[in-house]
């Protein structure tokens, strides 16, 4: 029997999923692992979906997505960021940012093209490059620099084969937010070497100290940036699978061509829900961010009090504490914590080699559960 793709064979399963396969077989586990809001999708959004179903809106939309939704996104980006994208040519509705990332890579990469990726980073970044025939070039960041990539690291990684720089700020798993001057230097490098910038900004609405800086707003970035964003995190709509890509018309058209043949269109009822989210759910979004802000302070203080050094994240809903003083590897720490105290976290090495010695904890759960988990983690660490 012929074997399956060597690239797929050589790609390990997600380090996040491995732990949650174990969790699914256990009872009474406190989970700080899943990167998903614990809030229900706001009622007005759910109601809009229900109403769309009642009206029989269950058919295909344009491959680009509903024009009404693309116009709403275009208006929202202009209002929030001062960015203008033509809703008919520069916006594509995707099945979450995950699909957007996949088809962005396939649209711009030729076999052997390199993509520079700062780590720790979301688990799908490198596989998306590999599946598109490209070569990921990981760059390690460190706690001393706040897990923010230095422009000189990117400059030194550029070769004749480099095609793109992939950035994700606010960052998963660290919560890092790159300052404007760093991003401007990275854009200058992209301009100098004529590189694409693929910017995953799914956590852009979840920032706690200052306003989110959207990369295409920076000088020289707009014409070379593929902006990926969506509704999962800001509006607690993970299961709705609705996102979008914005960028140069020729790139978006190429992405649409792949989307057209593989997906057809994002779910119609989710598109109606997304329109309602943009128009009427910003207040609920802001309320969720306020609660995340309270939770991040509690969990950071708690982890530092336990003796697990932890930086204060400036965005997203994750913390990335060091567990080096325990003498355990990231995998050992997470497995023992799960089986001995029934607390689920994710080993830092799931997000890249430089994540070894750290764990990712999500504070997208209630304060009560966070406090209970902190008590169990403290008990576990005290025994080591």
Describe this structure in words.
By secondary structure, the protein is an alpha/beta fold. The chain folds into 2 domains: 136 residues, Aspartate Aminotransferase, domain 1 (Alpha-Beta Complex), CATH 3.90.1150; 238 residues, Type I PLP-dependent aspartate aminotransferase-like (Major domain) (Aspartate Aminotransferase, domain 2, 3-Layer(aba) Sandwich), CATH 3.40.640.10. 42% of the residues lie in helices and 13% in strands. The protein is built from 13 helices and 12 strands. Strands 2-8-7-6-5-3-4 form a 7-stranded mixed β-sheet, with helices on both faces. The chain has a 3-stranded antiparallel β-sheet with strand order 9-12-11. Helix 6 links the parallel strand 3 and strand 4. Helix 3 packs across helix 10 and helix 11 runs parallel beside helix 13. The longest helix is centred in the last third of the chain and has 25 residues. The radius of gyration is 21 Å and the shape is globular. The termini are far apart.
- Class from secondary-structure proportions: alpha/beta
The amount of beta strand, in percent, is: 5-15%
Task: Count up the helices.
Answer: 13
CATH class category label of the largest domain = Alpha Beta
What's the name of the CATH homologous superfamily of the largest domain? Type I PLP-dependent aspartate aminotransferase-like (Major domain)
The best one-word shape is globular
Largest sheet: 7 strands, mixed
Lateral strand order in the biggest sheet: 2-8-7-6-5-3-4
CATH architecture of the largest domain: 3-Layer(aba) Sandwich
Q: What is the total tally of β strands?
A: 12
Which whole number gives the mean pLDDT? Answer: 96
Radius of gyration: 21 Å
| Parts with pLDDT < 50 across at least 5 consecutive residues | none
Named CATH topology of the largest domain = Aspartate Aminotransferase, domain 2
Q: Fraction of residues in helices?
A: 40-55%
N-C termini distance: 49 Å
What's the number of domains? 2
């Amino acid at each position: 029997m012929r074997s399956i793709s060597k690239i797929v064979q050589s790609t390990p399963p997600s380090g996040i999923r491995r732990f949650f396969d174990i969790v699914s077989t256990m009872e009474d586990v406190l989970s700080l692992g899943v990167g998903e809001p614990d809030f229900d999708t706001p009622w007005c959004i759910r109601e809009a979906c229900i109403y769309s179903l009642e009206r029989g809106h269950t058919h295909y939309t344009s491959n680009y997505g509903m024009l009404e939704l693309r116009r709403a996104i275009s208006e929202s980006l202009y209002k929030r960021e001062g960015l203008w994208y033509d809703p008919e040519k520069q916006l594509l509705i995707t099945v979450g940012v995950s699909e957007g990332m996949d088809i962005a890579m396939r649209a711009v990469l030729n076999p052997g093209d390199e993509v520079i990726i700062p780590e720790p980073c979301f688990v799908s970044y490198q596989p998306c490059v590999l599946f598109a025939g490209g070569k990921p070039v990981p760059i390690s960041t460190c706690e001393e620099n706040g897990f923010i990539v230095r422009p000189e690291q990117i400059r030194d990684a550029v070769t004749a084969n480099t095609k793109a720089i992939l950035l994700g700020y606010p960052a998963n798993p660290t919560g890092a937010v790159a300052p404007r001057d760093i991003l401007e230097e990275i854009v200058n490098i992209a301009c100098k070497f004529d590189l694409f910038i693929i910017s995953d900004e799914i956590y852009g609405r979840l920032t706690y100290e200052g306003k989110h800086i959207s990369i295409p707003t920076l000088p020289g970035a707009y014409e070379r940036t593929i902006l990926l964003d969506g509704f999962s995190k800001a509006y607690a709509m993970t299961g709705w699978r609705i996102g979008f890509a914005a960028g140069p018309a020729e790139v978006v058209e190429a992405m649409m061509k792949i989307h057209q043949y593989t997906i057809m269109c994002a779910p119609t009822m989710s598109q109606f829900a997304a329109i309602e989210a943009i128009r009427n759910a910003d207040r609920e979004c802001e309320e969720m961010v306020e609660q995340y802000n309270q939770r991040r302070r509690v969990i950071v203080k708690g982890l530092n009090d336990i003796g697990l050094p932890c930086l204060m994240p400036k965005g997203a809903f994750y913390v990335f504490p060091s567990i080096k003083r325990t003498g355990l590897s990231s995998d050992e720490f997470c497995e023992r914590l799960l089986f001995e105290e029934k607390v689920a976290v994710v080993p830092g090495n799931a997000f890249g080699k430089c994540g070894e010695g750290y764990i990712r904890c999500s504070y997208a759960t209630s304060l009560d559960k966070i406090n209970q988990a902190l008590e169990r983690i403290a008990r576990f660490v005290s025994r080591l």
